[in-house]
Write a structure and sequence with these properties.
- The protein is mainly alpha-helical.
- The chain has a single domain, classed as Vanadium-containing Chloroperoxidase, domain 1.
- Helix content is 79%, strand content 0%.
- The longest helix is centred in the N-terminal third of the chain and has 28 residues.
- The radius of gyration is 18 Å and the shape is elongated.
């Protein structure tokens, strides 16, 4: 089933190569953009003001890190080759990576970040979730992953975000307070110049 869905998408994109090129850019630069956007939440939080965006940034990055760690454990237990390694795939719009296909690291990190932000700030989180969905879809469109790999990665990222935001919040809050002692004095200079 996973191979049939992958193969159908791959054949469709082969007939519409602009989609392959478009999603190659989205999933390549989108993963960097979503991480940078999470850091920007911290930078946009007014020093001495609400910690909501700082908590969102800290939780997002912790969720992505936890998701990638969980992926290492899962792929160590069950190795699944990339679709282009397991089958004859003519069209690939990205590098031929040799690391395990299941679960998708890109999807885990992107959904970990997006869901963590969504749980803390639903408005900002909606934009993050849209980007995460595009990144996940892009992994299938460019031919790097089976749809099941991306769905599993999204599930891992979502569960990790729930764990970090719901259970790890006291630790994240403590770390936010520690880190903001170093960043707030510098950011307050930027905020004063802006005003």
């Amino acid at each position: 089933m996973d191979w049939r869905a992958y193969h159908a998408v791959n054949r469709f994109v082969a007939d519409h190569a602009w989609l392959g090129r478009l999603f190659h850019g989205i999933e390549s630069y989108g993963t960097i953009a979503i991480g940078v956007a999470a850091v920007c939440l911290w930078l946009l939080a007014r020093p001495g003001g609400s910690r909501k965006w700082k908590l969102a940034a800290g939780s997002a990055l912790a969720s992505a890190a936890l998701g990638l760690l969980v992926n290492r454990v899962v792929s160590g237990v069950w190795h699944r080759d990339r679709p282009f390694a397991a089958h004859h795939v003519e069209h690939l719009w990205g590098p031929r990576k040799a690391d395990p296909s299941f679960p998708s690291d890109h999807a885990s990190a992107a959904f970990g970040i997006a869901v963590a932000v969504l749980l803390i700030d639903p408005v900002a989180g909606a934009a993050f979730l849209l980007l995460a969905a595009l990144i996940g879809a892009g992994r299938v469109v460019v031919g790097e992953h089976y749809p099941g790999d991306v769905l599993a990665g999204a599930a891992v990222g979502t569960l990790c975000a729930l764990v970090v935001v719901r259970l790890g919040r006291p630790l994240v809050s403590l770390l936010v307070r520690v880190v903001e002692r170093a960043t707030d004095p510098l950011l307050s200079l930027a905020w004063r110049r802006r005003l």
